[in-house]
Design a protein that fits this description.
Elements: E1 8-9, H1 15-24, H2 29-42, H3 55-64, E2 65-66, E3 71-77, E4 83-88, E5 94-101, E6 106-109, E7 113-115, H4 124-127, E8 130-133, H5 136-154, E9 168-171, H6 181-192, E10 204-208, H7 212-221, E11 225-229, H8 235-241, H9 250-260, E12 269-275, H10 283-294, E13 302-308, H11 322-334, E14 339-341, H12 366-380
Parallel strand pairs: 1-2, 6-9, 9-10, 10-11, 11-12, 12-13, 13-14
Antiparallel strand pairs: 3-4, 4-5, 5-6, 7-8
Helix pairs in contact: 1-2, 5-6, 7-9, 10-11
Bound molecules: S-adenosyl-L-homocysteine and iron/sulfur cluster.
Length: 392
């Protein structure tokens, strides 16, 4: 007899795997489609709700499978409507998911790792070190939980006829998605599938600190809109802000952006640039950026998204003043580069970019995290994840 430890979590399965799972149960492929619609279009987690499945199949599933997303530890709504969930991913780890409502769309910002090994100087997720990769169920479970929870809150029907709450997904929460490649791509494929969420590739954005070989793999395996966290206009500065730059310097990063574009759903790359007072925000930095994206071997079609730094206590960094951000944006715009300044949302509930730290993190597991960090260093080079000081 099955014990609870052998129950299969169906949120772990993409379309093809669900077909294989049904096949193993002696069921036809169309059953997988039905099952997927119940799960991802109706938010169903109980098999007896799935009324068009044969009773015998429902009974079989009830003894073997579950539909389980990470448990919600806390759920806060900001005065601006931003809603943040803290989710338990076991062993004292938590990740965050943030919903940002706007007039014509609802964006969900999801996490892909508990902690992050890249250790960017200005990011509180990085400061906690790497803990572990999230599973497919933990990644797609964020969208599943948020979509149907938002509908429940608003009294909107589950099912494809009910008004879709999440129209856009950004992988900009905790973690570096391209360092958790397979589960991230599997989750992306569920987001895009017509029998699940049916999101268009243009409405799903993956943000990366610049894991060059994985940008190439993403282009082949699941191209979605790409945002690259640039944050610096030259290698010296970027080495100190985003340690991964020592492994994949700017010219390699720019070249990988160019290689990505032919398969991308949009004809530009979004460069994110965190505005740090006195560090990367002078007119000279702006001009250097223009030279980087315009006058390299080949110009990179791009837009800039300036993110006012969201301070957190240990960072020792300050947010650039608004007039400075404006002047910086103007220089880019005068050079014909579309530039936006990200509006800070959810400040009052610590849901803004880079403030996602997973409050219930178990600090006693630092040792284990450090070991994993060492393995990453072996894989990605000595300076990987090293805390480096910003040159003054
Ligand atoms: N690891 C990926 C995605 C998660 S971070 C990446 O780095 O792209 C999402 C975005 O938030 C990145 O552009 C990141 O640089 C930015 N960010 C991190 N910490 C921040 C902070 N304290 N203030 C503002 N933006 C921050
Ligand atoms: Fe990791 Fe992104 Fe934070 Fe850098 S900015 S530490 S890559 S989550």
């Amino acid at each position: 007899m099955d014990t609870p430890t052998t129950l299969t979590n169906l949120l772990d399965f993409g379309p093809a795997q669900l077909v294989a799972y049904c096949d193993a149960l002696g069921e036809k492929p169309f059953r997988a489609k039905q099952l997927q619609r119940w799960i991802h279009q109706f938010g169903a987690s109980q098999f007896d709700q799935m009324t068009d499945l044969a009773k015998s199949l429902r009974e079989k599933l009830a003894t073997r499978a579950v539909v389980l997303s990470p448990a919600v530890i806390s759920d806060h709504t900001s005065t601006d409507g931003t809603r943040k969930w803290l989710l338990d991913v076991g062993q004292g780890n938590a990740v965050e998911t943030v919903f940002i409502p706007e007039e014509n769309r609802g964006t969900l910002c999801i996490s892909t790792q508990a902690g992050c090994a890249v250790n960017c100087r200005f990011c509180s997720t990085g400061k906690q070190g790497f803990n572990r990769n999230l599973t497919v169920a933990e990644i797609i479970g964020q969208l599943w939980m948020a979509e149907f929870e938002l509908r429940r809150t608003k009294g909107i029907d589950a099912g494809p006829k009910g008004e879709r709450q999440i129209t856009n997904v950004v992988m900009m929460g905790m973690g570096e998605p391209l360092l958790n490649f397979e589960p991230t791509v599997a989750a992306l494929k569920i987001m895009l599938d017509d029998n699940a969420y049916g999101l268009s590739r243009r409405r799903v954005t993956l943000s990366t600190s610049g894991v060059v070989p994985m940008i190439d793999r993403l282009a082949h395996e699941c191209p979605v809109a790409l945002a690259v966290s640039l944050h610096a206009s030259n290698d010296g500065l970027r080495d100190s802000l985003v340690p991964l730059n020592r492994k994949y310097p700017l010219h390699e990063l720019m070249a990988s952006c160019l290689r990505y574009l032919p398969s991308a759903p949009r004809d530009f790359i979004t460069f994110e640039y965190c505005m740090l007072d006195g560090v990367n925000d002078t007119d000279q930095h702006a001009r250097e950026l223009i030279a980087l994206v315009r006058h390299g071997a080949q110009p990179v079609p791009c837009k800039f998204n300036l993110i006012p730094f969201n301070p957190f206590p240990e960072s020792g960094l300050l947010r650039s003043k608004n007039p400075r951000i404006k002047a910086f944006a103007q220089i880019l715009m005068d050079a014909g580069i579309v530039t936006t300044v990200r509006k800070t949302r959810g400040d009052d509930i610590d849901a803004a970019c880079g403030q996602l730290a997973g409050e219930v993190l178990d600090r006693t597991r630092v040792q284990e995290r450090m070991q994993k960090q060492a393995q990453y260093k072996q894989k990605f080079g000595d300076n990987f994840g090293r805390l480096v000081e910003i040159p003054t």
